[in-house]
Amino acid sequence: MAIKSRNKRKIDFNSSSMSDLVFLLLIFFMLTSTLVAPNAIKLMLPSSNSKTMSKQTITVYVDEKNQYYVGEKRVRETDLQAEIFKGLANQIEGTVVVRSDKTVAVQHIVNIIDAVNEINKETNNKHKVLLATSNKK
After folding, report:
1. Quick one: three-class SS letters along the chain?
2. Among 23, 60, 88, 129, which is most buried by a count of CB atoms within 10 Å?
3. What local confidence, expressed as pLDDT, does residue 25 receive?
4. Domain residues of the chain, as ranges?
5. In whole angstroms, how far apart are CA 14 and each of 21, 24, 26?
6. Residue 116: how many CB atoms within 10 A of its CB?
7. How confident is the model over 95-120, as pLDDT tens digits?
8. 28 within 8 A of 20, measured Cβ to Cβ
């Protein structure tokens, strides 16, 4: 008497679950990679050839003698953050335009950016910094 089993074994490999797993991992890594922000200075540099216009909330000047001006008022480096904060009062997404002389060291511009970043961190706002340039001739 021959006994036959009712369940037949299939040798096929079903890859649909493997592709689902790959897509889930891909989505996971894409989402987590966008949350990681590099430790860099975020500047929006307008092109010298185009006329980029932005609503200016406040303008900070640095002259050739490395003196800071918030609007028309001359301020010391130690008071820079407080004066910018006053100019950005009641703004959620204000714009700080930096106008500096060609001979000014980059460190003075970074001081302004650091002051705005510190204000953003304390007030949980999204103020931007623009570096003003002159048109190419």
Report:
1. CCCCCCCCCCCCCCCHHHHHHHHHHHHHHHHHHHHCCCCCCCCECCCCCCCCCCCCCEEEEECCCCCEEECCEEECHHHHHHHHHHHCCCCCCCEEEEEECCCCCHHHHHHHHHHHHHHHHHHCCCCEEEECCCCCC
2. 60
3. 92
4. 58-131
5. 13, 17, 20
6. 25
7. 888 888 777 888 888 899 898 888 88
8. no
Q: What percent of the chain has pLDDT over 90?
A: 4
- CATH fold for domain 58-131: Nucleotidyltransferase; domain 5 (3.30.420)
Residue ranges with strand state E in 20-111: 58-62, 68-70, 73-75, 95-100
Structure tokens at 22: 């790959």
54: left (phi over 0), alpha (psi -120 to 50) or beta: beta
CA 68 to chain centre: 24
Return all residues near 71 (Cβ < 8 A) that are at least 6 apart: 58, 59, 87
Distance CA 23, CA 56 (A): 44
pLDDT tens, 5-51? Answer: 777 777 777 777 888 889 999 999 888 877 765 544 444 444 455 55
